[in-house]
Amino acid sequence: MPGGTAAVLALCLVAALPGSALAAGEAGGADVPGYGIAEDARQIKGAASSGDGPELKPGTYRDTIGRGEKRYYSVNLDAKSSAFLSAVAAPEPGSKVGTVGEGLEISLETVDGDECGSDDPQFRAGGRSYPIAGTASRLMGEDDECQKAGPYLLSVERVGSDTSGRGRWPLELRYMSEPGLKGSVPTAPGDNGADDEPPTPVTGSAKKQANGGTGFNDAGALSTGVWKDAIEPGETRFYRVPVDWGQRLNTSVELSSSSEGGEFPPTVFNALGLTAYNPARGQLEDDDFTDYHAESASVGAYTPVVDFGNRFANSGAEAPFAGWYYLEVTASPELAKYFKKSAPLTLRVDVRGKAKEAPAYDGDAVAAGFGVSEDDREQAEEGLSAAEAERSGTLRTVAVTGIGVGAGLILVLVAWTLIARRRAGRDATVTSAPHPQQPQNPQQPQPYGYPPSGNGWQ
């Protein structure tokens, strides 16, 4: 890469960092941001009939779904890897939803109609919308019904009352493939801590700045510690935490007190909500919402210990692999009674336990999204989203390349300088030495030697 090109690219990338993001946020005005579907999500249209479902391959897709609709998709699975297919429903902020039973029904089946896995995420904020997600899976080693290679069917149905909003919901679909294991499959652990009482959250004042995202794809990373952020009334923010094998996540999200509300501050029901998800976007437990009446309020989540065998356990099955665990934080629009612009948040994050060795995967589980790398831990310490981490890595590459190019140019310039000096010294020596006088005989040839001064090598 030429030095000038490297420098220009570096400057362009620097310009694309937080400063430009701030400008975009300012341009958006006071509107509450909606769910951010992955930029690389492929457009797809689910079919009304199971026989016409478009094929999904590992990756992310976008679709929409109307009230009462059921969408079908097809997947071809092998006989080695486990498959996790998730769906995120993301109504526009402020959309009307039912108070009970409104949400999605997600199912993965064989073409013969045998169910492999299902999920039914629902809204639990008293009729207010926010992004909800669930996952249907095909687990290897679980039973005999869904172990064969071949075609399978994914269905996503929007369920609820006829009084909910008529607008179509954006859908984000994701297919993750977990490599199989070498050798035998672990059994369910004796105790994964799924029924443990949550310990006291990490104490101390907020010292780190968190940057919540608009969805799973731009969620801001968090590490163990106390973080601060702000959330607008009616907004949902996403965060992610790397949790390794043998570890568990204890977290608490707090909404600060307010001096507004007068002598008898009104109660905002379902004011602050927290939902925890595993790396495949499966809910670890039902959404937890709490009320608010001017005093500080908090919600928390405590995951089971991450263990491969959890997938076969009666409880704690939602923590069967390591990777990025997600926190979805939702603020009621009625909090505008107390906070005109944004409400201060405190996030207390505690990744507990010592990381253990990963199972013997027959493939790169970390690359597939089922593990934790050193880069992941660094991103968490710095509070970066996936896109910010990628830009940061690109900048480091450009910087190293630029340094290499710059060093190379310096060496070339030094070499040119030395060569020029040597030539200059040689030319000076040749010019100062007297040329032998030649006889004035035109028949005698000129002797070989350096050209006369003025016509020498430059």
Count of β-strands: 20
Strand content: 25-35%
| C-alpha end-to-end distance | 30 Å
* Overall average residue pLDDT: 84
**Number of helix segments?**
4
User: Would you tell me the structural class of the helices and strands?
Assistant: alpha+beta
Sequence of secondary-structure elements? HHEEEEEEEEEEEEEEEEEEEEHH
If strands are numbered along the chain, what order do they take across the biggest sheet?
1-3-10-5-8
What is the name of the CATH topology of the largest domain?
A: Jelly Rolls
Radius of gyration: 32 Å
Helix content: 10-25%
Q: Major β-sheet, in short? A: 5 strands, mixed
Number of domains: 2
Oligomerization state of this entry? Answer: single chain
The coarse silhouette is: globular
Keywords: Membrane, Signal, Transmembrane, Transmembrane helix
Protein name: Integral membrane protein
Organism: Streptomyces daliensis
Overall description:
It is a single chain. With 458 residues, the chain is an alpha+beta fold. It has two domains: 35-178, Sandwich (Jelly Rolls); 179-384, Jelly Rolls (Sandwich), CATH 2.60.120.380. Helix content is 17%, strand content 29%. The protein has four helices and 20 strands. Strands 1-3-10-5-8 form a five-stranded mixed β-sheet, with no helix packed on it. Strand 6 (103-110) and strand 7 (115-119) form a beta hairpin. The longest helix has 47 residues, at 386-432. The model is unreliable at 2-30, 394-401 and 422-458 (pLDDT under 50). Residues 1-23 form the signal peptide. It comes from Streptomyces daliensis. Keywords: Membrane, Signal, Transmembrane, Transmembrane helix. The chain crosses the membrane at residues 398-419.
